[in-house]
Amino acid sequence: MRLLAFGVIYFVWGSTFLAIRIGVLEVPPLLFAALRFFVAGLLLFGWMIARREPIPDRREWRSVFLLAFLIFLVDYGLLFWAEQRVPSGIAAVMMATIPLFMTLSEIMLLQTQRLSARLAIALLIGVAGVAVLVSRSLNLGGAPIDRVGAVALIIGAISWSVASILTRKLPLPSSKGMSSGAQMLVGGVLLALAAGVLGEFRSFHPENVSRGAWLALLYLIVAGSIIGFTAYVWLLHHDSPTKVGTYAYVNPVVAVLIGYLFGGESLGLRTLLGTLLVLTAVVVITGLRVRGRPKKGALFRDRNEVPQMT
To answer: Which residue of 55, 148, 162, 214 is surrounded by the most CB atoms within 10 Å?
Structure first.
């Protein structure tokens, strides 16, 4: 059972990036994201109610709304939009920079983390990895990724980092399932409203959407959100959070390989080097968090309590 659960969070979550790309090539991105998270959130929220989990109170709903705005509207909205312009594997690598931005926030804003020499080197390695992926001056073969798409992904990663920090401060339901279900449900509504404002409903014609795109949406709802989240929560109760958190640097590798094998995406020196640098930085930073002793009041001794469910 443990191996199956790890397989889900490693390979299912890693494969969702390609599923997103398949969908947004035919369905407007914010609307596609809204469909995914509203349905998944409604099912998870209903399941929690059926299990008689307490419904969020007024203060908790305010927290849910703020986190849904940062995570689903900003982070996922930009991710789905960017995958129209950026290969799915590269999008996964860019989103793997979340620990870098969380660490920078703790150093520069919260002052709950000290900038050691090893940490500074890790951050520079991560920045170098992003630079390799977007640089037009480095002769590494293959075209650099779209800069507008890259900026959108970085903004999304920063938004997720802010939400992760706020999660430790805001009042939220004690049940992880209820909290996630409520956030996905509200996030789906916010994404639908944004899609309406941007006119995506007018350009959406369900009869023109292929079976592959509908299957991608179904896969994201069932496998990516419901099964993936269930496996993640089960593992948190049966294994160490540090070991569970290894999905953070396995998912991008899986996404790059799946994009290459099944999505026709390139796997040149630029992609390999940028991915290696970013993941090296993530491994070092997460390793320092586990071994180090954060200052009193430090947030996110374990960043993996808030999963990146792509």
So the answer is: 162
